Amino acid sequence: MDLRFTDEEVAFREEVRAFLRENLPDDMRKVVADGRLPSKEQLRSWTRVLKAKGWAVPHWPAAYGGTGWDPMKQYIFLEEMQKYPAPQPLALGVNMVGPVIYTFGNKEQKDFFLPRIIGLDDWWCQGFSEPGAGSDLASLKTKAVRDGDHYIVNGQKTWTSVAQHADWMFCLVRTDPEARKQEGISFLLIDMQTPGIDVRPIVTIEGEREVNEVFLTDVRVPVTNLVGEEGKGWNYAKFLLGNERTNLARVGASKQRIARIRDIAAKEMVDGKPLIEDHRFREKLASIEIELKALEITQLRVIAADMRRGNTGKPDPASSILKLKGTELQQTTTRLLMEVVGPHAMPCIADGEALGGEPVGPDYAAHAAPLYFNYRKLSIFGGTNEIQKNIIAKAVLGL
To answer: Which of 98, 108, 228, 376 would give a disulfide with 104, using CB separation of 3.0 to 4.6 Å?
Structure first.
């Protein structure tokens, strides 16, 4: 297999790099490099820079505002964004609900929601997981009962990322309690300003308020906000999760973190010499780089297969491999970053800030511990890695 990039692809990579150098503010780049979340205002500002360039939704069809790029150009763009690093457009809108709407939604939904997703006029959250229905998502209990031109929604969602900022939620609800559990689920779009919605923060181990519980009590949702057909929500959710798992590989982000580790290891002194010269450390770093190269080649193979097959609208089972190994490597690199900065990574967190308001060591060490703890979640969301192994065994290996 020839995995070399064409001259056109190499030129495109240089174009992306030049655009990032010329347009991304240094302070925003530092936020991403530290592993912190950009503010809502920062992300909206950067998204609109991408929109002006026509690059806000590169993987969407051109008919809906996308670039018309083939999967390889999309991959190059995403890798360069992650390596620079630059904030990526809000995945909940761009990568998740957007493709569901333009694939399964009606014309009115496409006309209203898609332009607002492109410009980040609306901030989205995902109402999938529930207490007792995470990995076994089809066991969800949130119900929607038809009442004329509305559904009345009651239930609870949990681990809902950025719901505190959200204008809209795409939500799985049970519309037919008598049907087989996968067949009684529908996909609703819910305005977060609707009466009856209560968002409560969950403070995570590193002190952040990124995830939330969302309680829905007699929430009236217009029937016009149903995506596709009633009872087909499970199919739309599988489509969405297939896209999410492919994007969770984040090869470019792991490359950027390894480069950061190398840079810091050249500054950190151990026994009178830079850590980067330590034989055992170099072995450990090389081992991670080899695994990352294997993941990168796997992703390129998935892309090549996608280009040969064409867009079928069905998730590639190999996306589970990318999710599994990609998240493991992201966790491994954050752990190695913790080791490199040593005792300066000692977590000292209160309400999301270091006690005393100052880091205990160099500036580059300040966010190593929060990033490490936050990334423990990666092997759980998007379908736990244990579930991905089952999918790989059945759909990829045929066991």
So the answer is: 228
